[in-house]
Amino acid sequence: MTTPPDVESLALLVAIDETGSLGAAGRRFAMSQPAVSKRLRTMERRLGVRLVDRSTRGSTLTEAGNLVAGWAARVLDDFGTLLAGVEALRRDQAATLTVAASMTIAEHLLPGWILEVRRRTPGLHVGLKVANSTEVAELVRIRAAQVGFIESPDPMPRLRSRVVAHDRLVLVVAPGHSWATRRQPVRAHDLARVSLISREPGSGTREAGERAITAHGLTPRSPALELGSSTAVRNSVRTGAGPALLSEHVVAGDLATGMLVEVPTAGLELTRDLRAIWRHDTVPEGPATLLGNIATEFGERTGVRGT
User: Fold this and answer.
1) Alpha-helix residue ranges (DSSP H) falling in 91-132
2) Is 76-165+273-302 CATH 3.40.190.10?
3) How far apart are CA 166 and CA 87, in angstroms?
4) What is the pLDDT of residues 113-130, one digit of tens each?
5) Which uninterrupted H or E stretch holds 244?
6) DSSP secondary structure string, 11-24?
7) CA 168 vs CA 171, 245, 248: distances in Å
8) Nearest CA-CA partner of 145 in 157, 163, 159
9) What are 131-140's pLDDT values in tens digits?
10) Is 28 exposed, middle or buried (0-12, 13-18, 19+ CB in 10 A)?
11) At the top level of CATH, which class does the domain 7-75 belong to?
């Protein structure tokens, strides 16, 4: 089994790719060229791939090294996003901007938004509270957060909102489920007859899924399981416990690896708005406004654009 390299080694490889030489990359990290070479040899042994061509004229990345450096750059971006999210969770009382977000947004979108807002506003301290959409709305109402991000389609009393992006729910099953090879798309009446694996009441994901069924005058069946996070729902579906409607962000990796299968649907409105919310008697300003604008920018880049 391949032993993954450490983050510092990945950063060094990316620096070699960017600067074109081991010496220049070493200077960026205050490392001697022999130390850089030693780190690279260790990484080559761990990965089982030759990353550098060494000759009397110098050392350059191999074709494989260039590929790995490109992948490493994406890993480092994701790692920076992870650190931004964790730091926001740690900060609370000292936060300059406190944000509340629903589980799906907090897990898959918000850390990247926070990383960008902090890049544009050095020294900004961001605190993060994670809850379902109903609870996020209450946190904003009681001023425990200056701005919130939710997926709920329902009007929120004493709150104003702005659409920053869109999301799509997808119907997923385990590969062994009977729907995994279904040829006809699933329609509202099909969904109304089954018990889905679902989030808890108050979840924006659950509300959007139920609304897609009730829009046809049908009543959804009680869930087979109610779980407190989309990740828990996804994991239950993977075990074969039943189908679920989940954000495409949540299941993208499992669909790519074949751990889950997307079931085609027809006649169901499964696109939902992602909204920034704030108290009706306030106007977002400063970092709160910037964060909302960044959310919209990210939506435009990824094709989940808000209006």
Assistant:
1) 103-108, 110-120
2) yes
3) 26
4) 988 998 898 888 888 899
5) strand 244-247
6) HHHHHHHHHSSHHH
7) 10, 10, 6
8) 159
9) 889 999 999 9
10) middle
11) mainly alpha
